[in-house]
Amino acid sequence: xxxxxxxxxxxxxxxxxxxxxxxxxxxxxxxxxxxxxxxxxxxxxxxxxxxxxxxxxxxxxxxxxxxxxxxxxxxxxxxxxxxxxxxxxxxxxxxxxxxxxxxxxxxxxxxxxxxxxxxxxxxxxxxxxxxxxxxxxxxxxxxxxxxxxxxxxxxxxxxxxxxxx
Length: 165
Prior knowledge:
single chain, about 20% helix
C-alpha cells in the first residue's frame, strides 16, 4: 500500500455519497443497538458465578418475540424504562407453585436440581402460585440473604430479552 492509499483510507474525500453512507451506517447502528442488541454492564453479585459484576453483554431483545420465557432461561427484566434492568433466571412459569425450603427450590412440591446456583443457602420462603401472565425470577447467587435480592413474580411484559452469552 502506498502512502497516498493509506491517507485516502483514513481521510477520505468528503462527498455526498460518503455522507450518505456514514448516515446509513449510523442509522443502522442506532436501530440495532437501541432495539435489537441492547448493550449492558452487570452491576451486583446476584447472578454470580454465571454472570460476574463488571462484565459486559448484549440483551437480545427479539428472543421472546415468538415464544414465552421458559425454565431455566436467564432474562433481562425492565424495572424503569431501559435504564434500570435486572438480570435474573426464570425458575417457574404461570400456574406453578414456587417455594424455598432450607435453601432448596421446590416447584409444585418437587425439589429442583440447580447446578448453576452458587454457595449454600438458608432461604425459607412460603409457597406461592405464579399468576397468569407472570414468571418467577431469582438470581443464581443464593448465598446472599434473601433480603439482599430482588426476586419474585414479574409480568412477562416486563421481560426485555435474554443475554447473548
